């Protein structure tokens, strides 16, 4: 096991080689009272003079657990005893959402960190993400499916609203930090939710990672090294792809014919870089695939794919481009025709709906769920206004027209006029959204998708 002084020495050398910190800088450290952040705080406090900074501790009391107040008091006492500036925020219980608590908590936390940086004229935000966090992140992205550029995982340094966000522990193991805390008599609190196997990251941590370490004790370190190699490859590819984009770029309108002259693996790199410069970190393989299918479909001279934050990528004859539009233009209401983006919620007539390739969106509150099997050739999937003679496929192989679906369901005339039909690239009807879905037989040659009506 790594001795405490050796870990401090390694940390000091690592920071010095990276040239991250100077005495003139003020750093904000996110401290939760857990072993990772308490170890980070102590390591930062014991840096040599040439790298020692002014420290501001930022603590969030999420009020999610019984010991939250006790943890807050411990951090206050620690900072008082060591003469550290502390700023605390409380995430009021009435602001806790019913769903997506983890992501909402993260947003609250980082919004608060930004406030602290501004208030204390800080230069750098520091968080305690370590080597195990890196490995878990890479594995989750790999399993869920993501474009390879994003397999670089957690970046050690990145921009954060004009400040720097630094994670100096990404090459230090969780167990090393824990032993450092034990050997230095550092008190910390365990978050019992870290044992909840209903959370994906916890399953990675407690089930998958131990198997990897059993196979190879250096497995976690190798995954972290892999993330570094991917990041280096990303920088190399980005440099080369930017040279190609310059050749097809006409004031952010991209020449489609020139684009299509490149092989698909270059096209993918072009699309990923264009999108990432507009709405960073919002894309996955499924989205890239849909955009590629739209741009390469010679029979559809126009079309669009919805992105995040009210952006769309549009194809118009000989050009394509990214555009920000008002939300009502892409809501999916009334007589709109548009290309469907996987894993994106749309507003329908008295309901929300989504076509997903993920299996963990099941919710007992869903009004309807239908399994759909699709091949790559059936994309892009589009939505169009429902016509009375639209036909869904029944279990026995027969068909039922939309008009009969509406009559049987006693659907009001005004709702029929706003109804929409989901179709594949050949015009095959997949569903009359919210009212009836075609029945699909299981097909191992195709990928399984789920249509959810909420």
UniProtKB/TrEMBL annotation:
CDD domains according to UniProt: TilS_N
Alphabetical list of Pfam families matching this protein: ATP_bind_3
Enzyme class at the top of the EC tree: ligase
EC number in record: 6.3.4.19
Metal-binding recorded as keyword: no
InterPro entries: Rossmann-like_a/b/a_fold, TilS/TtcA_N, tRNA_Ile_lys_synt, tRNA_Ile_lys_synt_N
Location relative to the cell: Cytoplasm
Domain tRNA(Ile)-lysidine/2-thiocytidine synthase N-terminal intervals: 27-207
Keywords: ATP-binding, Cytoplasm, Ligase, Nucleotide-binding, tRNA processing
Catalytic activity: cytidine(34) in tRNA(Ile2) + L-lysine + ATP = lysidine(34) in tRNA(Ile2) + AMP + diphosphate + H(+)
Main location: cytoplasm
Family: Belongs to the tRNA(Ile)-lysidine synthase family.
Its job: Ligates lysine onto the cytidine present at position 34 of the AUA codon-specific tRNA(Ile) that contains the anticodon CAU, in an ATP-dependent manner. Cytidine is converted to lysidine, thus changing the amino acid specificity of the tRNA from methionine to isoleucine.
Protein name per the record: tRNA(Ile)-lysidine synthase
The encoding gene: tilS
């Amino acid at each position: 096991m790594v001795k405490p002084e050796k870990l401090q020495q390694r940390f000091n050398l690592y920071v010095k080689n990276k040239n991250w910190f100077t005495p003139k800088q003020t750093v904000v450290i996110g401290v939760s009272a857990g072993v990772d952040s308490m170890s980070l705080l102590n390591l930062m406090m014991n840096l040599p003079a040439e790298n020692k900074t002014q420290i501001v501790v930022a603590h969030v009391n999420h009020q999610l657990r019984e010991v939250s107040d006790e943890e807050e008091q411990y951090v206050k006492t620690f900072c008082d005893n060591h003469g550290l500036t502390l700023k605390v925020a409380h995430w009021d219980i009435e602001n806790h959402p019913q769903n997506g608590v983890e992501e909402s908590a993260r947003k609250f936390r980082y919004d608060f960190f930004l406030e602290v940086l501004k208030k204390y004229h800080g230069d750098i935000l520091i968080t305690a993400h370590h080597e195990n966090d890196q490995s878990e992140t890479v594995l989750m992205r790999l399993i869920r499916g993501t474009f390879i550029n994003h397999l670089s995982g957690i970046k050690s340094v990145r921009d954060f609203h004009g400040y720097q966000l630094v994670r100096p522990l990404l090459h230090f193991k969780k167990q090393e930090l824990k032993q450092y805390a034990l050997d230095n008599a550092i008190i910390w609190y365990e978050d019992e939710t870290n044992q909840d196997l209903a959370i994906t990251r916890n399953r990675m941590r407690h089930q998958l990672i131990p198997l990897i370490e059993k196979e190879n004790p250096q497995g976690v370190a190798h995954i972290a090294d892999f993330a570094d190699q991917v990041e280096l490859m990303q920088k190399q590819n980005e440099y080369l792809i930017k040279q190609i984009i310059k050749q097809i770029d006409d004031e952010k309108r991209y020449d489609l014919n020139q684009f299509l002259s490149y092989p698909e693996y270059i096209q993918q790199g072009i699309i990923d870089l264009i999108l990432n410069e507009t709405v960073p970190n919002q894309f996955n393989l499924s989205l890239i695939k849909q955009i590629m299918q739209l741009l390469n479909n010679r029979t559809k001279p126009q079309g669009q794919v919805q992105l995040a934050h009210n952006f769309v990528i549009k194809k118009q004859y000989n050009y394509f481009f990214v555009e920000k539009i008002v939300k009502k233009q892409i809501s999916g209401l009334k007589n709109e025709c548009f290309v469907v983006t996987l894993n994106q919620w749309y507003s329908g007539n008295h309901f929300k709906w989504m076509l997903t390739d993920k299996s963990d969106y099941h919710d007992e509150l869903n009004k309807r769920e239908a399994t759909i099997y699709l091949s790559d050739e059936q994309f892009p999937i589009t939505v169009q206004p429902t016509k009375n003679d639209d036909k869904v496929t029944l279990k026995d192989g027969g068909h039922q027209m939309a008009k009969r679906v509406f009559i049987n369901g006693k659907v009001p005339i005004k709702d029929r006029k706003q109804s929409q039909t989901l179709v594949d690239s050949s015009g095959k009807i997949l569903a009359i959204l919210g009212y009836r879905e075609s029945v699909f037989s299981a097909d191992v040659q195709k990928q399984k998708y789920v249509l959810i009506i909420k």
